[in-house]
Design a protein that fits this description.
The protein has 377 residues and is α/β, with parallel strands linked by helices. Helix 6 packs across helix 7, helix 11 runs antiparallel to helix 14 and helix 14 runs antiparallel to helix 15. The protein is globular. It is built from 15 helices and 16 strands.
Length: 377
Amino acid sequence: MSLANHFDLIATDGAARTGRLTTPHGVVRTPAFMPVGTAGAMKGIHWREVRDAGADIVLGNTYHLMLRPGAERIAALGGLQRFTGWNGPMLTDSGGFQVMSLSELRKVTENAVTFRSHLDGAKVELSPERSIEVQRLLGSDIAMQMDECVRLPAERADIERAMQLSLRWAERSKRAFESAAPGYMLFGIAQGGDVPELRHTSARGLVEIGFHGYAIGGLAVGEPQAVMLAMIEEVAPILPEGRPRYLMGVGTPEDMLEAVARGIDMFDCVMPTRNGRHGVAFTRFGQVNLRNARHADDPRPLDEESEWPSTRDCARAYLHHLVKSGETLGAMLLSEINVAYYQRLMQDIRDAIAKGTFEEFRQRTRADWARGDIAPR
């Protein structure tokens, strides 16, 4: 493998790993959760709260940013970090997931995907080469290969076709990335749906091509959790031990905890901010629905032992009122509470792996979630 390695594995505990990924814009501690800033912004939360919560890296969306405001415009304005005000590392996805979600508006060929913009209906072509070009114009620290993602369940023939196409696109993506400046990274994406043999073929093919890191894609797209975890168990042992492993689009705290136990280093998901906008908080007691009337007269905070101010200080009654009233502040507070919880969970996981107590932490955390929220007043 000729590509430079920017990942240092610090400690392992069983299959769980903690490490350090060095990027041009800073160091990422792993396991890491990347909050999703689709269009260059976190929904309902400022970058300073994202940073204060403990996030080292965030995610931007190639498809959305290339359509608006445009990759060339962002490049002229100094790149994604300067444009947004986020001074840390950024990963950008390739647009492959949007290709799947826009199935009514797109056509996939060997060369590229042609689709209609959801903004104005304009015809747009996205090839592996253009995807890499856009990500380089954005200035993302970690770019992703162009791939085709299939929503599950699906026929084996469709899964295999998309997997093989993604492998060919992986080779083209790597060639397009060859002139990138030192320190910037390109990750390959293992596909193969819920078919172990296809997952093996994809992973081995990617390792042969050689990437700075490896993602597992095409999961959390409709399959049960047991299937997702089984596919991780099939793929992770094939990937190089000294390279970062990224499970795309995942997920719930439980999903992440179980994926870490199977050797995953990086995650992303819109769930913390999306659930926050819908009145749901993530806490060490599990999910708490602030729309529930049980909170209307409760002066207690979500978690009086939390280090995050809004989690520790805001009364449940007030959060309930904001959510029921449709106040923007409610979505803002719950989004920051959720991002902070995800980052605290990642820090606790890193600490437990470093101490060799990950399995104990895993069982204790699952038991806390199972007990549920504190009794109503």
